[in-house]
Amino acid sequence: MRRITRIATVGIASAALALSATACGGKKSSDGGTAASSDSKSASAAIAYDIGGRGDQSFNDAAFAGLDKAEKELKIKGAEAEPTEGESEADKVQRLTELARKGNNPVIGVGFAYAPAIKKVSEKFPKTTFGLIDDTSVTGPNVANLVFNEEQGSYLAGVAAAKASKTGTVGFIGGVEVPLIKKFEAGFAQGVKDTNPNAKVLSAYLTQPPDFSGFAKPDLGKAAAKGQLDSGADVVYAAAGLAGSGAIEATATAGKWAIGVDSDQYNQAGLSKYKDKILTSVTKDVSDAVFNLIKSVQDGKPQTGEIRYGLDSDGVGLADSNPEYKKMADVIAAVEKAKADIIAKKITVKTAP
Fold first, then answer.
1. Model confidence pLDDT, tens digit, residues 71-94
2. Burial of 262 (0-12, 13-18, 19+ CB in 10 A)
3. Which of 29, 116, 219, 250 has its CA 20 to 30 Å from the CA of residue 239?
4. Side-chain half-sphere of 198: how many Cα atoms within 13 Å?
């Protein structure tokens, strides 16, 4: 695998570090920017990570998996750029600008927080394709909005939680109270209630915007999970990025069921100590979304506009890696029925609590 260069933006006053493994032979665009050549030998693609960065065992790592796959299968070069805590909008603009100037194509912003920056930078580099994950508010002729029906996967998690719970009380932890994460909460709560109308759903958010540290601090997730466990929850689902690992730790240590998010967290090396108590995970095929966008650019037919991944295309789903989950025939049957009903539009999943 070709070496991947990582950049960390350290404030407006500091320029992003130069990429040592980005594209060679980029073509000059009419606006002074660059666009990567379609020649796979010199082509490169870049991803700019969300809060928490690579190693979050969740959202960002799923995006990296797509880049990694593209490196291996498409023989491209890859570049990564890390966020910094408390960074400004100008930092994101600077980061994306640097990646585009180096000839990377596409340049992918991992997370809705990149929307304003992509709006600005995509206009300056019209020959570069920009991917924006989890947001449709910014559009353009060279912008691909990679979005998911998180509420559908979360509904299945709610069904599984309600069936697996012995106390009738389950918990949901959101990293930051924003519309995207409320989709997770809405689907989960609906799935729980549709399965067991008498069940109780405890909900908590770690931070409120503009404080997005709720996606990055495991201690916050751990404390929230402990609070819900103390209130009787015996299944806890966290949609909180890196902070979710703290929720998994607390829940697993208490001998209760945790439900992961974005990646199949049962298989994440960093969570291996707790894997036996990770009942399942709500998966988002961020990896394939990233790979597919990169491939579309290399094929000369770049994706643009809204590219939606739902339950009907396995763009979201529920992982079954845990052998203990596979033994729960009644849980699996209920989940499969719910999945079929959602795809058949017999069930409409809410996108807000």
1. 999 999 999 999 988 889 999 999
2. buried
3. 116
4. 5
Long-range contacts of 330-336 (CB under 8 A, 24+ apart): 330/163, 331/159, 331/160, 331/163, 331/164, 334/159, 334/160, 334/163, 334/195, 335/156, 335/159, 335/160
pLDDT digits (tens, 9 = 90+) for 207-234: 999 999 999 999 999 999 999 999 999 9
Question: Tens digits of per-residue pLDDT, 96-140?
Answer: 999 999 999 999 999 999 999 999 999 999 999 999 999 999 999
The residues, ordered by sequence, that sit 6+ positions from 271 with a Cβ below 8 Å of its Cβ are 57, 245, 248, 260, 265, 278
Query: How many angstroms separate the CA atoms of 269 and 275, rounded?
Result: 9
d(CA 199, CA 308): 32
Take residue 283 and report the two structure tokens written for it. 């998966």
